C-alpha cells in the first residue's frame, strides 16, 4: 500500500472518529454499531505506565477486610471505608478499597472498565530497584540474558503486518532515559521526549521563513527523497516509515491541543506524557503500544503525604487520558506496573521499605473491570513473603501475557517471556472474552 | 594442562616486517607521496571532476571496503593514501600497529590527566569515590528526610487551611509538586538558618564529598573522550576496530559500580594488550579483570556451604544494586536503617555460596556460544572451579567480599574455593586443584571446537557480513587450530579471504551508531576536541551528573551537543549495555525509524556545527569559486561516499538541489544529505 493510501485511510479514520466523539462520557459500549461502519477496523492499543520506585500496593488498593492489615499498620493503613471520613478508603467491594486520592478511578471501576490485579509482581526476590525494573521490563525475572524488552517482543509477536505498519507502532513518551528497556528490541520504537519537539532539524526553524529555515526544510525534503527513491534497500522502508511519522505529526500542535470531554491533565511531566499519548493516538498514526513512566514511589519516609501527592497525579493523569480518549477506549487497554511493593509493616520513619508484591491497574473497554483480580495471599505473619512483605500470587507475566495475547493478539508467550512456563491457564481474566 | 605462567608473559611483537620504518619518517613519507601523487584532498583547483561513480574502479572499491572494515571509514584522502602504498601493505601495517606512527594521537591523549594515572593511583581515587558516594547518598537521604518531614507539616497545614476556606484571594495556587519543592527548600533553609553549626557541618561535608567524588566524573569523561579520539584520529585503525569488538565481546556495563572505574583498567590491561595476541590470554585476562569479576558477580561466588567465621553477610547498602546472589538477594537498597516498630524477627539470610553468573556467561557468550553443548550441570561445575577468584587490595589483605572499596586487582582466595572434584564438559578436574581448577577450565574452553566456531563467527560478523558463510568460518577455525588461537592470524585470514571481498559483504553492513558517528567525522576530515581539554570544571560537573544514575534506573547521556550524547541518542550509549551480550553484532538490529530519525538529526547537527566537541574543516571551502549544485554534489559525494553513491541518490540530490525554491543547496546541506543518505548508513 502506498504512503498516500495509508495516510488516506488513517485520515479517514480521524474524521469518522471525531464524529463519534461528539457525545459525552465513555460511550464506547453503546457505539459498537457505529464502529463497525468505519472503513478500517481500528487497531488494538496498549498503554503501559511504569510506577518507578516501587509503589505501596497495600495503601493503594487497601485490603480493609483483612484483619491483619490494621494490626500491621496501626495508624498507617488507609482507614476502612466510611462515608464520613474523607481520608478513608473508597469501597470497591467488601474486602478492598481505593486510596481516597484515587477517587477518579472509582466511577470507571463501577462502570466495569477498571480492574485491579493484587498481590502481583515479580517472582524474583531482588529488592534492588535497578534489577527489579530491568527484570520486569525484560520480562525475564532473575535473568539479564535476554536482550531487549517484553513489549518489543510482544509487538513482533502480533499477527500479520501490524509490526511493520507504522513508525509509531511502539512509542515511549516522555521517558527519562530515552527508550525504556521494555521497548528496546527488534520491533524498533520511537522515544519521544516531547511531542512538541519531535522531528528532524531544529524545531525553531521548522516552518519558518528565512534562508536558514529554507535550508533546513530543503535538507529534510532531500532526506525524504533519498529514502523514497532507495527502492530495494532495507533502509527504504524504514525511511518511508520515518517520514510518514514526521509528516503525520506535521500538523499536530501539542501546545494548542485541547483534550476532549473537558479532561484535565496534571500540569507536570507525567500529565504531559499522558496528554501527548492521547494526542498521538487520536492522530491515528498507528500507535500499538505506548509507554510512559512516573517516578517518586520510593516512599521510605513520611509516606502519607508523599503517597497522597503521587496518587493524586497518577489518578488524575490516567483518568484524564481515559476520558480524553473517549470512545477509543473500546480498543485500548491501559496497564500500570511497578517493580515491587513495600514492606507490610511501616519502618521507623513513617515510611515503608522495599517489599515484594504490589497491585497493578488495568483500564479500558476490553478490560474485565469492576473487580479485584487474583488471589489474596493473606497478611497473617506466616502468610507474608520472608516474614515481611505481601506474598505474590500473580506473576506479572501472567498479566502482561494475557494483555499481549488476548488484547493485542500476540502469539507465543514463551517467546515474549523466555523461560516462562506459564500458560493461558494462569491468566487472571483481565481481558474480556 | 597449560601453564598459568604464560599469561604473565606480555604479548610481544618481535621482528615484525616493516618495523624498521621509523614512525615519523613513515608518516612523512606517506604524506610526501600523497602530495606527489596529487591526492585531491584539499586542492581547491580541481573543480572539474568526473562523476564519482564513473571513475571509481573495482580496485578503488576494494580499498574503500577495507577502509570501511579495518578502519572507521575513510578520511577524504585515505583511498589515495592506501593506493599509494598498496592495499596489501596497508593491511599488513594495520595488522602490526606497532609499525605505524601514532605519536600525534599519543601526544593528544596526554592532555587527559586522569588517564596518565597508574592503576594504583586510579584505585586510590576510586576508593575515595565509593566512600564519598556512600556518604553522600546517606547525606542526601538525611536531608531529604528532614526536609520532607518539615515540608509535609507545612503542606498539611496549608491544605487544612485551604479546605476550611481560610485562604483568601483568588490567585491560583502553584501546582502541588512545585508547592512541595518550595516547601522543601524553605524548610531546609529554615532548618539550616536555625542551626548554624549544622549548616556549617553540611557545607563542609558537601565540599569534601564534591572534592572526593570528582575523579570518577573526570575519569569517565576522559575515558570516553579518548575512545572517540582514538577511533577518529588514530592511524592504527584496525587496532581500534578490534578494541571496540573485543570490548563488546567481553561487555561490561559501567553503570554497575564500580565498573565505571574498573572498565578503564580493563580497557588498558585486558583488551588493548591482547587484540593481536592469543585468545587464551585474552580470555584469562578477562577472567581476572576486576571489572569482569564485579560485573558478572564472580567475586562474590564462594564454595557452597562454606563456614566462615565472623562474616557479616549483609550486602553493601549501595543503591547501584549489587546484583549477585551472595546472600539470597536480600537486604540491600535504600532501606532505612531504623528498626521497624515490630517485634518480628528479621528474615533468615542464606549463607554465602555459589553464583553462576560468570560461569554461564563465559560459556554462553565469551567462548562456546549458547548452542555450544554445555549443560546446567557444566555451569555449576565451572562456577565451582571459579570460586575464590576475586579481587583484593594491593596490600594482599583478605578479600572482604562485599566491600568493593577494597577492589584492586585480581586475587585468589583459597579458603573461599571449592576444592572438590569437578567435571567440566567431560573433563575431570581433580580435587585439590585450587586456583588451577579455573585455569584448566580456561584451557578447556579456549581449545574447544565450539569456541572456535562461535568466536570466529562473531569476528566474521563484525568484519564481513551479518550471516558469514560457513566456508569463511571454517577458514578461521583452521587458522585458529594451526596457530593456537592467534587473533592476528585469524583476522588476517578473514580480511584476505575471497568472502571478505564478495558482493554479499561489500556495503552490506549497517553501521552501528558509533561507527556512523565516527565515520561521519572522519569523512569530513574532522577531529575531536572535547571540552575536557579546555574546560575541565564543566565536564566534571556534567560527568558527575551522568555517573550517578537516578534512583531506580540507568542513565543516558542524551546531550545532543556532544558526540557521545549523539551516539547515545542514536541508540548506542557507550559502555552502557546492561546485558552481558554487548551491543548486537548483527547490524540489522540497528535499523529502525526512530534510530534513522536520530541519524538524520545527527547529520544536520554535525554539518551545522552544533556538536561542540567536533572540529570540522570549513565545509564551504570551495565557496570562493561558487560551484553549481551539480558540481558541488559530485565533489562532496566523491569525498564522502567515494563512488559508492548510487545513480538514484545522485539524481535525487541533483533534482532536489535544482527544484529547491530558494537558493541552491549550500555545501553544508549537501554534506548533511550525503551523510544521511542510505549509502552512508552502510560500510
Question: How would you sum up this structure, described in words?
Answer:
- The complex is a heterodimer of chains A (433) and B (683).
- Chain A is α/β, with parallel strands linked by helices and 433 residues long.
- Chain A is built from 14 helices and twelve strands.
- In chain A, the strands form two sheets. In chain A, strands 1, 5, 6, 7, 8, 9, 10, 11 and 12 form a nine-stranded mixed beta sheet that branches. A three-stranded antiparallel beta sheet of chain A has the order 2-4-3.
- In chain A, helix 9 packs across helix 10 (234-250) and helix 11 packs parallel to helix 12.
- Chain A is globular, with a radius of gyration of 22 Å.
- The two termini of chain A are 32 Å apart.
- In chain B, 51% of the residues lie in helices and 3% in strands.
- Chain B has a two-stranded antiparallel sheet with strand order 1-2. A two-stranded antiparallel sheet of chain B has the order 3-4. Chain B has a two-stranded antiparallel ribbon with strand order 5-6.
- In chain B, helix 12 (279-287) runs antiparallel to helix 16.
- The radius of gyration of chain B is 29 Å and the shape is globular.
- Classes of the chains: A alpha/beta (433), B mainly alpha (683).
Alpha plus pi helix count of chain A: 14
Helix content of chain A: 25-40%
Strand order of the largest sheet of chain B: 1-2
Overall body shape of chain A: globular
Residue-averaged pLDDT of chain B: 75
Please outline the major beta sheet of chain A. 9 strands, mixed
- Backbone shape of chain B: globular
Observed structural traits:
heterodimer, A: 433 residues, alpha/beta, nine-stranded mixed β-sheet, 14 helices, 12 strands, 12% strand, globular, B: 683 residues, mainly alpha, two-stranded antiparallel ribbon, disordered N terminus
Amino acid at each position: 500500500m502506498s504512503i498516500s493510501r495509508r495516510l488516506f485511510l488513517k485520515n479517514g479514520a480521524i474524521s469518522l472518529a471525531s464524529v463519534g466523539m461528539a457525545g459525552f462520557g465513555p460511550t464506547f459500549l453503546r457505539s459498537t454499531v457505529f464502529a463497525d461502519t468505519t472503513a478500517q477496523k481500528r487497531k488494538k492499543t496498549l498503554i503501559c505506565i511504569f510506577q518507578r520506585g516501587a509503589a505501596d500496593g497495600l495503601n493503594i488498593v487497601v485490603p480493609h477486610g483483612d484483619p491483619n492489615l490494621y494490626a500491621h499498620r496501626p495508624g498507617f493503613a488507609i482507614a476502612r471505608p466510611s462515608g464520613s471520613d474523607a481520608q478513608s478508603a473508597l469501597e470497591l467491594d467488601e474486602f478492598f478499597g481505593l486510596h481516597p486520592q484515587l477517587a477518579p478511578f472509582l466511577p470507571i471501576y463501577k462502570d466495569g472498565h477498571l480492574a485491579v490485579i493484587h498481590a502481583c509482581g515479580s517472582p524474583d526476590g531482588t529488592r534492588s530497584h535497578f534489577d527489579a525494573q530491568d527484570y520486569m521490563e525484560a520480562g525475564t525475572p532473575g535473568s539479564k540474558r535476554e536482550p531487549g524488552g517484553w513489549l518489543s517482543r510482544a509487538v513482533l509477536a502480533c499477527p500479520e503486518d501490524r509490526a511493520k505498519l507504522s513508525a509509531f507502532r511502539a512509542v515511549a513518551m516522555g521517558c527519562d532515559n530515552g527508550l525504556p528497556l521494555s521497548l528496546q528490541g527488534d520491533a524498533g520504537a520511537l522515544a519521544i521526549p516531547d511531542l512538541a519537539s519531535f522531528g528532524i532539524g531544529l524545531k525553531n526553524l521548522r516552518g519558518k521563513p528565512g534562508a536558514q529555515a529554507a535550508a533546513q526544510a530543503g535538507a529534510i525534503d532531500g532526506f525524504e527523497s533519498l529514502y523514497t527513491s532507495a527502492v530495494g534497500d532495507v533502509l527504504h522502508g524504514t525511511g518511508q516509515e520515518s517520514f510518514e511519522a514526521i509528516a503525520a505529526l506535521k500538523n499536530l500542535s501539542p501546545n494548542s491541543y485541547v483534550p476532549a470531554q473537558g479532561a484535565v491533565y496534571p500540569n507536570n511531566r507525567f500529565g504531559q506524557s499522558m496528554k501527548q499519548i492521547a494526542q498521538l493516538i487520536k492522530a491515528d498514526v498507528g500507535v500499538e503500544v505506548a509507554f510512559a513512566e512516573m517516578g517518586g514511589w520510593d516512599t521510605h519516609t513520611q509516606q502519607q503525604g508523599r503517597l497522597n501527592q503521587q496518587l493524586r497525579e497518577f489518578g488524575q493523569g490516567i483518568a484524564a487520558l481515559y476520558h480524553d480518549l473517549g470512545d477509543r477506549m473500546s480498543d485500548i487497554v491501559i496497564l500500570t506496573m511497578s517493580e515491587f511493593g513495600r514492606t507490610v509493616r511501616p519502618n521507623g520513619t513513617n515510611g515503608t521499605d522495599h517489599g515484594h508484591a504490589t497491585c497493578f491497574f488495568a483500564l479500558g473497554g476490553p478490560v474485565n473491570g469492576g473487580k479485584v483480580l487474583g488471589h489474596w495471599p493473606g497478611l497473617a505473619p506466616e502468610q507474608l513473603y520472608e516474614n515481611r512483605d505481601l506474598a505474590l500470587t500473580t506473576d506479572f507475566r501472567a498479566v502482561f501475557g494475557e494483555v499481549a495475547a488476548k488484547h493485542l493478539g500476540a502469539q507465543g508467550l514463551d517467546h515474549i517471556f523466555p523461560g516462562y512456563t506459564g500458560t493461558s491457564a494462569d491468566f487472571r481474566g483481565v481481558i474480556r472474552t | 594442562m597449560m601453564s598459568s605462567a604464560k599469561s604473565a608473559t606480555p604479548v610481544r611483537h618481535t621482528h615484525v616486517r616493516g618495523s624498521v620504518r621509523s614512525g615519523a619518517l613513515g608518516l612523512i613519507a606517506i604524506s610526501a607521496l600523497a602530495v606527489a601523487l596529487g591526492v585531491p584532498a584539499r586542492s581547491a583547483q580541481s573543480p572539474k571532476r568526473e562523476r564519482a561513480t564513473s571513475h571509481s574502479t573495482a580496485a578503488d572499491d576494494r580499498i574503500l571496503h577495507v577502509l570501511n572494515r579495518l578502519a572507521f571509514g575513510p578520511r577524504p584522502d585515505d583511498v589515495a593514501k592506501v593506493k599509494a602504498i598498496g592495499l596489501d601493505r596497508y593491511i599488513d601495517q594495520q595488522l602490526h600497529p606497532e609499525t605505524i606512527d601514532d605519536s600525534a594521537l599519543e601526544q593528544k591523549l596526554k592532555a587527559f590527566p586522569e588517564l596518565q594515572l597508574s592503576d594504583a593511583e586510579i584505585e586510590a581515587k576510586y576508593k575515595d569515590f565509593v566512600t564519598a558516594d556512600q556518604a553522600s547518598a546517606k547525606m542526601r537521604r538525611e536531608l531529604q528526610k528532614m526536609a520532607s518531614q518539615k515540608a509535609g507539616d507545612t503542606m498539611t497545614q496549608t491544605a487544612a487551611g485551604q479546605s476550611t476556606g481560610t485562604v483568601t484571594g483568588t490567585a491560583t495556587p502553584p501546582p502541588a509538586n512545585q508547592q512541595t519543592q518550595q516547601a522543601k527548600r524553605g524548610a531546609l533553609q529554615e532548618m539550616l538558618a536555625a542551626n548554624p553549626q549544622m549548616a556549617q557541618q553540611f557545607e563542609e561535608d558537601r565540599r569534601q564529598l564534591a572534592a572526593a567524588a570528582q575523579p570518577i566524573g573526570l575519569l569517565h569523561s576522559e575515558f570516553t573522550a579518548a575512545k572517540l579520539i582514538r577511533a577518529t584520529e588514530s592511524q592504527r585503525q584496525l587496532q581500534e576496530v578490534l578494541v571496540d569488538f573485543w570490548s563488546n565481546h567481553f561487555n561490561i556495563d559501567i553503570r554497575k559500580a564500580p565498573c565505571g572505574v574498573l572498565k578503564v583498567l580493563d580497557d588498558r590491561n585486558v583488551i588493548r594488550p591482547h587484540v593481536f595476541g592469543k585468545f587464551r590470554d585474552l580470555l584469562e585476562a578477562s577472567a581476572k579483570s576486576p571489572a569482569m569479576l564485579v560485573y558478572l558477580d564472580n567475586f562474590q561466588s564462594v564454595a557452597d556451604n562454606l563456614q566462615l567465621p565472623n562474616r557479616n553477610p549483609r550486602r553493601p547498602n549501595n543503591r547501584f544494586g549489587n546484583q549477585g546472589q551472595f546472600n539470597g538477594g536480600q537486604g540491600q537498597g535504600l532501606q532505612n536503617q531504623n528498626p521497624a516498630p515490630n517485634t518480628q524477627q528479621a528474615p533468615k539470610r542464606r549463607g554465602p555460596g555459589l553464583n553462576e553468573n560468570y560461569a554461564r556467561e563465559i560459556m554462553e557468550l565469551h567462548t562456546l556460544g549458547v548452542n555450544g553443548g554445555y549443560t546446567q550441570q557444566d555451569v555449576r561445575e565451572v562456577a565451582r572451579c571459579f570460586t575464590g577468584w576475586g579481587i583484593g587490595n594491593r596490600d594482599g589483605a583478605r578479600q572482604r567480599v562485599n566491600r568493593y572499596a577494597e577492589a584492586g586487582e585480581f586475587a585468589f582466595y583459597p579458603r573461599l574455593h571449592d576444592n572438590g572434584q569437578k567435571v567440566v564438559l567431560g573433563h575431570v578436574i581433580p580435587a585439590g586443584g585450587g586456583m588451577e581448577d579455573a585455569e584448566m577450565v580456561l584451557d578447556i574452553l579456549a581449545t574447544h571446537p565450539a569456541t572456535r566456531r562461535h568466536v570466529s563467527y562473531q569476528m566474521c560478523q563484525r568484519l564481513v557480513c551479518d550471516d558469514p558463510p560457513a566456508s569463511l568460518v571454517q577458514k578461521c577455525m583452521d587458522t585458529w587450530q594451526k596457530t593456537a588461537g592467534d587473533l592476528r592470524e585469524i583476522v588476517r585470514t578473514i580480511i584476505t579471504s575471497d568472502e571478505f571481498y564478495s558482493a554479499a559483504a561489500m556495503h552490506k553492513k549497517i553501521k552501528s551508531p558509533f561507527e556512523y558517528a565516527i565515520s561521519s567525522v572522519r569523512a569530513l576530515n574532522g577531529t575531536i576536541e572535547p571540552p575536557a581539554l579546555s574546560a575541565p570544571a564543566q565536564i566534571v560537573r556534567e560527568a558527575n551528573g551522568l555517573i550517578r544514575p537516578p534512583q531506580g534506573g540507568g542513565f543516558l547521556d542524551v546531550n545532543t551537543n556532544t558526540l557521545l550524547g549523539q551516539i547515545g541518542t542514536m541508540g548506542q550509549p557507550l559502555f552502557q549495555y546492561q546485558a552481558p551480550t554487548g551491543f548486537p553484532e548483527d547490524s540489522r538490529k540497528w535499523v529502525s525509524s526512530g534510530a534513522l530519525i536520530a541519524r538524520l538529526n545527527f547529520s544536520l547537527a554535525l554539518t551545522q556545527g552544533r556538536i561542540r566537541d567536533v572540529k570540522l574543516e570549513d565545509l564551504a571551502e570551495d565557496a570562493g569559486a561558487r560551484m553549481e549544485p551539480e558540481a558541488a554534489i559530485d565533489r562532496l559525494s566523491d569525498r564522502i561516499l567515494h563512488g559508492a553513491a548510487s545513480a538514484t541518490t545522485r539524481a535525487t540530490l541533483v533534482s532536489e538541489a535544482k527544484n529547491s525554491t530558494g537558493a541552491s543547496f549550500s555545501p553544508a546541506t549537501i554534506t548533511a544529505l550525503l551523510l544521511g543518505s542510505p549509502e552512508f548508513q552502510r560500510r
